[in-house]
Target: Cell division protein FtsQ
Amino acid sequence: MRKVITACLLSIITLICLYLFLHSSFFNVERIYVTGNKEVSEEEILEIADIFPGINIFEVDNRLCSKAIELHPMIKKAQVIRHLPRSIEIRVEERTIWAVIPYNDVILCVDEEGVCIDRRPNFPAGDYPIITMEKMPAKINLGQAVQPAGMKMMYQIWSRLTPDMKRRLSDFHYINSKKEVVIYTSLGTEVKFGSDDRLEEKMELLEKVLKLEEEFNNKGNEAIEYVDLRFKGQPVVKTKD
Model:
């Protein structure tokens, strides 16, 4: 019985010592730094994180801090990492511009999830796909996702294009009411792509359409008005009168 009591007392003393050690000044944070950021400054991220030197490293709520940082429209993902005994790393993944959307008198810059990360008076430098939509929200704030279902569909198409195919396309139009995509080539051909069903098949057909369009253009033949890929079988091709 005495041995049991002694063991219990030793366990309690050990736990108390461990608790006091973990909450001692030995684990007070001395260094807080940010990695992965390019556009968002370290100062801005640290201000949002609300972590300051001197706090005990185990008192930092990693999850809550990460969620707060991810509220920034330019931050896609944040992770707060403890480096014992006295350092905190904030690792971020920034959102990057994938496409641009003309909207009223500004240009919306969105990432592949459709999240608006910037509003600019002019088109940004770079080869970004131009996207228009049948219907747009009355107001769009930074950090707001613009038609995520449609953006996902168009990104699936874009990510499967070769560099040469991307060069030959002008813009994408999303028809909200039908959940369909229309693609316009740089030579003015309208490609009725439709939904994302039979995606791989449609991508192969789109490549053939672009080659056919180039052949028509090189030979001086009548231009193609539109190509309809929405239905199974051979695509419908209509030339301009």
